[in-house]
Write a structure and sequence with these properties.
This protein is of the alpha+beta class. It has four helices and three strands; from the N terminus they run βαααββα. The radius of gyration is 13 Å and the shape is globular. The two termini are 21 Å apart.
Length: 94
Amino acid sequence: MELPADPLRAGYYCELDLLVWAETHYGREFVAFLKRERRPIGLLLRLAREASIVLLPGAGFGGPEWSVRVSLANLPEEAYGASGRSCMPRRATM
């Protein structure tokens, strides 16, 4: 995933808006499903429980409700690909 240039980014974390990402990759219908059937914190808890990936709610840092804050400081660079793939939905019903 390409990160947009941001002169204010510290380089040790990034925020991703999951609804923007979901619409780009899966369409508006999937976004409507997420908003109707899930809560952002539920997705974060499920990722932690099932994939041992801990992300922080972006809303706690002033971001959108469906954003997440990803630390880029505590793993080797090659480990982030596996983490990202773990976040991808395995099926449309998440």
